[in-house]
Amino acid sequence: MPDKTITILGCGWLGLPLGRALATGGFQVKGSTTTPEKLTRLEQASIEGHLLRLNPEPEGELSILLQADVLVIDIPPRAGKQGDDFHPAQINHLANAIRQSSIKHVIYVSSTSVYPELNRVAVEEDVQEPEQSASPALVQAEQYVQRLAPDRLVTIVRCGGLMGYDRIPGKYVAGRTVDSGAVPVNYLHRNDAVGLLKAIITQSLTGVYNAVSPEHPTREAIYRKSCADFGYALPTFIDPVSPVPYKVISPEKIISDTGYLFQYPNPLSFLYSSGA
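Below the sequence we write its predicted structure tokens.
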């Protein structure tokens, strides 16, 4: 397997450690960044760095990046002033370029935000079309990637809330008022996100997968422990005026297909640190 060349589009908070782990495992790794200053960080992680922007058309060294066997697309959607159509347009332009490339396997890092909060367990088949989704633009982006099959292997990985290291839950709610304390979390530690993506790459798995920790403690339990551990001001927990809707994302499919053993199955035991 390590004779494969892997390109990661988006070497950010998840993409950079993923690339580092793959390079350590013997793979040739290329990666993109939007900033020249970050090229040195990629080089230090044994990643061949290239500049690329998607505005939404690709600007930069895309042709070199597409000279690979596996392509991981890890570009978080940023709506805001650019509008909901911007990210699907980015992915559509990428997909058109991929069709002209030697890429054999495309992995798109999506999000469990596609699932509406229906007060029940959510599985992959629950959202297949934009109109079923709480984030229709994200499903549209998924579909642009899915249409690359059957000419290429295609995998959609819907990650839960990525946490760990410097992403400490308590700092986001310190001193605030929280009325959603009873809601279960759907978190994924960054180490496990890397581990699951590595498993998908090495096993050439295809399809749609949820990637979340198998345990789902409440937000209140998470926030209380996080604030106690790191000295943040505890939020004020109040009862909501009406029940806050929730969802529990099931990772059973990805666990079954990969055989992966989570380093951090319980978000109450996630590893955190001040550095990334």
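The chain has nine helices and 14 strands.
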